[in-house]
Amino acid sequence: AQENYDAELIPSALKSRANATIRNQETIIDMRAPDNVVQTVKQAITVLNKNGENAARLVIFYDKSITIKSIKGEVYNAAGKLTSKFTQSNFSDESAADGFSLFVDDRVKHYLPNENVYPYTVVYNYEVRHKQNLAIPNWDPKPASDVSVEKSSYTFICKLTDALRIKAQNYSGKKIETETDKLKTYVWSVSNVAAVKPEPYSPDRETYETSVKIAPKDFVFYNYKGSYNNWDELGKWIYVNLLKGRSALPQNTVQAIKDLVKNDTDDKEKARKIYQYMQNKTRYISVQIGIGGNQPVAASEVDRLGYGDCKGLVNYMQSLLSVVGIESYYCVAEAGSQKKS
Q1: Which architecture, in CATH terms, is 239-323?
Q2: Phi, psi of 229 (to 5 degrees)
């Protein structure tokens, strides 16, 4: 049955401090196999004024591991009357260049209805296939402070034998679990979530907004298979699969490093000289292609080309230190202006 998107039906409490209201959002994640995760989304957003337009824009990133199967939608006026329809062909399709990488293979499709009479409602229906399950799409039912939510649900479907780790934050409802002969289903939902006025210096929204994150124990990522129960095991998977065989250096570089520190006995002084050698020889250039966003280029390539990205330069430095027996650790760390867990 067709839902009624008349803007007058939005409760007044959900209009307070809101520039947009999510009327209904239904997200279904069907993990049919580790390399076949289907994400199906239906979302209806009413834009209450011009300041709420950003909430109405649909943005979908994709690359070789993500395929956009279908997108379609409709636009309704303030009274809930259908005024137009659109398909994937109406979306802009652009490179998702970050402005500093030499090359990236990420792309983005995005769309915003060309409307200037408020309120109006846009309804999106889309399906995306993920060829990996290391990064399952999260559920964040309230995307911004100035957006209220009438209804939002998140359904995760997997096989009975799939082991999962689930982290639900700030969720006061009850998770619904059901099982059939072959599948198990988890459902989370929220309703009537009001918009709030953003405050300067307030904590990161992740610390107080509702969210659900799911991590399968067994995963596939760009044809690499893995399994982990904790951060230690994930770190070992990175070392064994993504770093293995990438530390070899040309013999002339090995000899140059040995000669560089042959008169030093202090490891800290050796490390300082080797670090300066690396700094003088290389420069930072970002290249994000395929699994390259997670796997460093080989140390021999950085040595030959004289450049690398974060991971490539760290792996190169670690390889140089190992030449003279200095132990070091390749670490994956969060970066940015805000502290995150």
Answers
A1: Roll (3.10)
A2: -110, -15
The residue type at 2: Q
d(CA 189, CA 196): 20
Percent of the chain past pLDDT 90, that is, above it, reads 75
Structure tokens belonging to residue 62: 């994709």
Q: Where are the domains of the chain?
A: 7-227, 239-323
**Pairs from 278-281 (Cβ < 8 Å, separation ≥ 24):** 278/313, 278/316, 278/317, 278/320, 281/306
Exposure string over 262-297, b if 16+ CB within 10 A, otherwise e: eeeeeeeebbeebeebbeeebeebbbbeebbbbbbb
Give the phi and the psi of residue 205 in degrees, each rounded to 5.
-60, -30
Question: Is the Cβ–Cβ distance between 288 and 263 less than 8 Å?
Answer: no
Cα separation, 314 vs 294, whole angstroms? 13
Task: List pLDDT tens digits, range 224-256.
Answer: 899 999 889 988 888 888 898 999 999 999 999
Cα 144 off chain centre by: 17
Distance CA 61, CA 95 (A): 9
Peptide bond preceding 216 in cis form (omega within 30 of 0): no
What tens digit of pLDDT does each residue of 132-187 get? 999 999 999 999 999 999 999 999 999 999 999 999 999 999 999 999 999 999 99
Q: Which of 302, 331, 330 has the alpha carbon at shortest distance from 316?
A: 302
Kindly report the number of other CB atoms within 10 A of residue 104's CB atom.
18
3-state secondary structure of 160: coil
- Is there a contact between 109 and 93 (Cβ–Cβ < 8 Å)? yes
**CA–CA distance from 222 to each of 13, 241, 281, 286, 310 (Å)?**
46, 11, 31, 20, 20
* Contact present, 237 and 199 (Cβ < 8 Å): no
pTM of the full structure:
0.87
The matching CATH number, chosen from 2.40.420.20, 3.90.650.10, 2.60.40.3140, 3.40.50.300, for 7-227 is 2.60.40.3140
